[in-house]
Every structure is written in structure tokens, then in C-alpha cells.
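Hey, quick one: can you model this chain's 3D structure?
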Amino acid sequence: MTRPNRRGWLKGAGASLAGLVLSACDRLNNNPQVMGVLQSAEGLTQRVQRLVIDRKALAPEYRPADISPDFRANGSTRPETPDYLALEEGGFAGYRLVIDGLVERPLSLSLAQLRALPGRTQITRHDCVEGWSSIGKWRGAKLGPLLDQAGLKANARYLVFHCADELEPTLDGSGMYYESIDLIDAYHPQTILAYDMNDRPLPVPHGAPLRLRVERQLGYKHAKYVMRIEAVEEFSQIGRGKGGFWEDRGYEWYAGI
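Sure thing. Here's the predicted structure for all 257 residues.
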């Protein structure tokens, strides 16, 4: 008898649930009681997973031979904002990653400085909520030591990743892509800011010059085109208040796999 694969089961269940939620999005959004139940269930899922899985348990890693020959690039594939286009034209030489918010020592780092920091290389599987997966090789700066360098303040609870891509232009700025994770995932050994993919500089369709890899989360949590990391106590005043671009539109904030 074939032994069930927990990761595959969770991915399939998550994709099915996401499909059900999105297909009924308009009806659910108009029913506060139903939305309250869904949010409570999400919180329960997060708490249960954190109880039964070691906080530092690694996502599976693979061999070079397992790397997908065609790794799909979804979501934005090239931001069109003037600032990003200027950075791209200059080969990202003028790029600076800003780390601020609830930190003692705000940082502004070039790609060269990021490459000089403690790094990690990993071959992992990217699982999309749409139901597809691809395996890629990533190298990037470990996020944990960067946060230690900035010095998180005692009331910092989340990191918000502000990105260069705008998926849905709006007057209130809520169309700019952003994502957030808590400090447990931020300090996970496999959470990196990737600047290389498959032994080459990160290509634009996959988030150049820098993207988040948070390997125990579904694909939409892996923010591309990261420009700024803001340490916050809560994110209710950012975007539409749900913690991420897709979360603001009905996806779960906690997308653990």
C-alpha cells in the first residue's frame, strides 16, 4: 500500500479549499459570520501546525537532477513602475534594500552588500495555490542574520515585504504587491532573500533583483521584487489590512505546507 504524502495531501487540500473559497468569494464577503468562521479555522490550522511540526523543520530539498527544466513564472513578470524600469535598465546597480520600521538600526543595502552576507543555497519545490509545482535552486542572504543586524524592537511581530510590482492600480495604493510573515518563519533556516536562481542572477520574471523564499509556505507568500522590509507590530493599516495582496482579496494569511 502506498503511504500517503502529507505535503502533497496538504497542498491538494489547500488548493481545493482555495478554489471553493474563491468561487464563492462575493457571497462570503457579504456574510460576516461565514468570514469569521473561516478566519477562526485559519488560526486553528496555524496553531495546530506549529504544535505538531518543529519550528525549524526543513522543507524537502532535492538533487540538481530534479530541477524543473521550465519553472513557471506567475503573477507579475515585469513591473512597469518608472523606478523599477530605471533600476532594470541600470542592471540593478542602484538597487537598495531598505529594512526599517520597528528596528534599532535601519539598513539600506546594495546587492553587492547582500551577496557578501551569510548565504544559503537550497533546491526546493515551489507549490502554487493553483495546483502546480516546480523545483528550483536558490541562493540568497539568510533573513535571520539581517534582522539581527537591524536589531528588531521588542514589539516587532511581523515583517512586511513591500514590492515593486503593481497588479491592480488603485487610488489608495492597495494594488502594490506586498506580503507578510511572522518572526517564526522569518528566522527559519530556509527563509532567504534570493538573488540567484539555478546558478544565475535572478531573472526579472522570477523577481529580480531580490525575492523572498519562505519554503514552508505556498507560492503567493514568496514575494518578488522586494524593495523594502518593514518590521511592524500589526498590519491592519497596510493595504486592506489582511497582511498581503492576495490575502486582501480572499486568500489565507497563513499558507503553511
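One thing worth noting: The radius of gyration is 18 Å.
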